[in-house]
Give the backbone structure.
Amino acid sequence: MHLDSINHPKLRTWIDEMVQMCMPDDVYVCDGSQEEANRLSERLLRSGSFKKLEKRPGSFYAFSDPGDVARVENNTYICSRFREEAGPTNNWADPQEMKGELMQRFFGSMRGRTMYVIPFSMGPIGGPLSHIGIELTDSIYVVLNMRIMTRMGSKVLEALGRDGTFVKCLHSVGYPLTPGRHDKPWPCDANNKYIVHFPEERAIWSYGSGYGGNALLGKKCFALRIASVMARDQGWLAEHMLILGITNPEGKKRYIAAAFPSACGKTNLAMLVPTLPGWKVETVGDDIAWMRWGEDGQLYAINPEYGYFGVAPGTSMQSNPNAMKTIEKNTIFTNVARTPDGDVWWEGIGYDPPEGLITWLQEPYDPKSGKPAAHPNARFTAPAKQCPVIDPAWEDPNGVPISAILFGGRRAGTVPLVHEAMDWSHGVFMGAIVSSETTAAASGAVGQLRRDPFAMLPFCGYNMADYFHHWLRMGERTGVKHPKFYYVNWFRKNKEGKFLWPGYGENSRVLKWIFERCEGIGKAQESAIGNLPAPGALDLTGLKISEEAMKELLTVNAEEWLADIPGIRVFFNSFDDFPEQLMERLDWLEKRLKT
Ligand code: GTP
Ligand code: SPV
Ligand code: MN
């Protein structure tokens, strides 16, 4: 659509300003139609950025520059007016200075390209919990991914009207086509990436990267970093959580939200196929939840997204059949390996690599090289509605009522399979002490233990001490029905370095116990850290697992926990205005562990 189709004066003014700075050859407003998507895909096929996947209708293969494969936390900034507003866990820069620096980067950055205007809604269009964003980008790949990940196009402009509010999202790959310069399959400015948030202004400026959360600005930048600030200001919650519905054999249904760090099992849990007969799990969302108290006092959650940007490696018919069925068509695959007959392959897909495999680096695959065929952070972008177990209420604009909130992470030791908080503030404490081994979802070393409270360390758009205060305040609301809180760990290992718990579908056994606790029938026993399943309360029917393994999974090793306490204390003390209540909870925990 032509720029003149925009009749929102403030939006038009902002676009005009950004056009002046970025100097694109052309401006195009996306309508979100299938014809438009076909046209843009054709262009990427012609330029070599996309390859058609003959085996998967409507699907495409893309591969990135090797210098642009994941989120870049070191180059991610929260530019609030004051440094204290961003807090010790975020990179901060003065907003004016950063704007100045960025303006130089963006100056002329879209020369030789088209600027695409993407109107998008996070959450069902016009819904009471939904919010609109406008992304300006010079990347067709971003347009096509945003069309899957968000509700996008003309309908959103209609909902915005002449004066609706929107989050300003500016994105450039930073590779202008100046005279004599040829385009690349994956244009970027790998050595000069900036993922910058201006929370007061509700604005995002992202430069230099075309990958995932760096470039699809509705996701981490808006729905978590900016939305967390909006949520604090307006009394709701924007969280890095999956949402699932679970139904017991009698037909009773409950909804559960769960926060695990990146690449720690959200998509897998959200689409789980229970191994327990008669139980059913359905998916509302796999990455982000926006939650608020409903009029009936229950906590309601929506999934603001419209698709899945999921980790490909490890996804198989065995581990996640629902994801495998979701990605059979209309899916964009990035940085996986491709087969000569137009299909995809990755480590852990469940079968051997076919002859003639081409790696994500576009080289012939050599198993002896020791190099993986797919990048560990290779991803699929697929429409949520293609998930065979999508929840019937997944598009309910009012959300679904949450009975339980889970926290988790990758911990080889210390943290048991599951334990339950005593109350809301203990739940907030549990969220605050989450730690996890780092993964390939962000650039940097993999497997290093770090504190990742609420799985929000890289995604909280303001001071995390203030974030904990906000969570505590939310629980102090009168007349509300608190969900229960749990801390789970699917990743505990034995001395040989093997996972003690089979995970995936078998996690339904843990969900069943949580469900029964919510019903008031599940049995628990108190421990120093919270409630564990009572002996026999975890349904292990039909599971082959040794008694020693179960014992290790469900006991609290006080020594190991005590070894964690100093690190937690250092973390808590790194904030100026840390909640007293949580500090007392830490003393409480330490005392209980010592007796
Ligand atoms: P993001 O999209 O980065 O936020 O990741 P995510 O939290 O959705 O993680 P995902 O479900 O994609 O899982 C990441 C990796 O963890 C995959 O390689 C999975 O195979 C593996 N994984 C998921 N669930 C389990 C589990 O229960 N046990 C074990 N051992 N591995 C798991
Ligand atoms: C994550 O890293 O938590 C993701 C992938 O979900 S990205 O969208 O790239 O942030
Ligand atoms: Mn995520």
